[in-house]
Design brief:
eight-stranded mixed beta sheet; alpha+beta; Alpha-Beta Plaits
Length: 455
């Protein structure tokens, strides 16, 4: 096992690593990344007992399997190999979980069919969070999330996949839709080296490849003592003696550690006391009795919703958030090399949902199609004409189909950027964003929440 890396030494990210991370998250149009950390169980012992030549063969076969699965269809990207450990990033938490489970499945098959891999198992940890400041990846911010993913991975045993709560919460919709094949378990909150507050550990298992096991090398946070719960109940009974009128009003406490800033009924933020490290957060405003809708944005076009019901008296509520992602398409074209004409194109078809209000979920199917074409001036290879083309269909109806042409000098360092709104309603709007930077051109077709619309 490789020890959890020291970010100032063993995992010193180079400029090329940061560029790769930044390009990947821009390609995926997100400021939030899911970080995967893996390593081989018992690799050091294997090297000592069977020699470096044998262990290097194992590691190369291990790397081939992992890189192939992680980077399949450009869903993820391997950033670093640290001995027998691998660090990778994903834009979608559900995709990171899916690929982690696929790695364990393929490693199980390889272990049974490749002699050199007999007895070799992999442990995996996943954590997610925002990694940018001022639209660029921050090494300090990214490093903290990498450290947490590494610590979580170090708690796992061979064949296990451990998640932090943010990954589990964001991927819960995908997990639920695949619950016949996938099982998940909550092991509790654990203290780990270098992190002040305990981390909630979840485990996911596919096809019953392993049995769920809680971490053995970490101290578990103790649950609230029974006497304290009884004391709270007695206190509530005493309060009841002051009369029913006290309970005719409603107070709300969220029992949700790591609670993000939430809004209610597509309106204002809900202020709460304390900070996100606490498990009990009292709401500081009066919330009307009845059913309400809470939400927070994981990213600009990804929103998590929770339906809650407030009754008179004391309400202790743990919102069950469900993630809904809006569709997008992103393509880029590099024009500095190649023939007189270069082209990049793609299309996306996706069904998605969002809450119109507490009682209404809107479902829609969209089709995005986009292309970029650059043609060099035959008399001046530094001059190009870029043609951006796009098409948007919603529920089978063409909403917009258009092109935009610009002439560009590849030596021009000034950025060209234009945003075109295609359609909007009370909750969502569609837009096209075209960009040109030096020898690169970008086209994005995006569905976004109306709160982010600035015209």
């Amino acid at each position: 096992m490789s020890p959890a890396p020291d970010l100032k030494s063993e995992l010193s990210l180079e400029e090329i690593d940061l560029i790769a991370i930044n390009e990947f998250r821009k390609l995926k149009n997100t400021s939030v990344l899911t970080i995967m950390f893996t390593d081989i169980k018992g690799f050091t012992k294997m090297t000592e007992t069977k020699g470096e030549e044998y262990s290097n063969v194992c590691r190369r076969k291990h790397d081939e399997i992992l890189v192939g699965i992680i980077e399949e269809n450009q869903s993820g990207k391997v950033i670093k190999h640290i001995g027998d450990a691998v660090m990778a990033i994903f834009a979608e938490p559900s995709m990171a979980v899916e690929r982690a489970l696929k790695i364990q499945k393929e490693m199980k098959i390889a272990e049974q069919t490749i002699d050199e891999l007999g007895g070799l198992t992999v442990r995996i940890g996943l954590h997610m969070g925002q990694v940018t400041t001022e639209d660029n990846v921050s090494l300090d911010v990214f490093g903290r999330h990498v450290n947490r993913a590494s610590r979580v991975e170090s708690l796992a045993d061979g064949g296990q996949v451990y998640l932090t709560y943010p990954v589990f919460d964001s991927a819960k919709g995908w997990l639920t839709s695949n619950e016949k094949e996938i099982e998940w378990y909550f092991h509790g909150a654990y203290f780990v080296k270098g992190i002040e507050h305990p981390i909630e550990i979840y485990e996911v298992i596919a096809e019953k490849l392993v049995k769920p096991k809680p971490p053995k090398k970490a101290k578990k946070k103790k649950a609230v003592p029974t006497w304290m719960i009884l004391l709270c109940l007695m206190a509530l009974c005493v309060l009841g003696s002051f009369g029913w009128s006290y309970f005719d009003r409603a107070t709300v406490t969220f029992t949700y550690k790591g609670l993000p800033i939430v809004k209610m009924d597509h309106g204002n933020e809900v202020p709460v006391d304390g900070d996100e490290k606490e498990s009990l957060r009292k709401v500081l405003i009066s919330m009307p009795q009845g059913k309400h809708l809470l939400h927070y944005d994981t990213r600009r076009n990804g929103r998590s919703y929770a339906e809650i019901e407030i009754k008179r008296g004391e309400n202790f509520i743990r919102p069950e958030f469900k993630y809904y992602g809006l569709p997008y398409l992103s393509k880029n074209l590099y024009m500095s090399s190649g023939g007189p004409r270069k082209e990049a194109k793609d299309e996306v078809k996706k069904s998605y949902k969002y809450y119109k209000n507490i009682n209404t979920i809107v479902e829609a199917e969209v089709f995005f199609k986009g292309s970029l074409v650059s043609i060099k001036d035959p008399n001046n290879e530094k001059q190009v004409k870029i043609t951006y083309s796009w098409e948007l269909q919603e529920n089978g109806v063409v909403i917009n189909k258009d092109t935009l042409e610009i002439n560009r000098d590849l030596n021009d360092r000034e950025e060209f950027k234009k945003k075109i709104v295609l359609k909007k309603n009370e909750r969502v709007y569609y837009y096209v964003e075209v960009t040109a930077r030096a020898s690169s051109a970008y086209l994005r077709i995006i569905a976004d929440y109306i709160e982010y619309l600035k015209e």
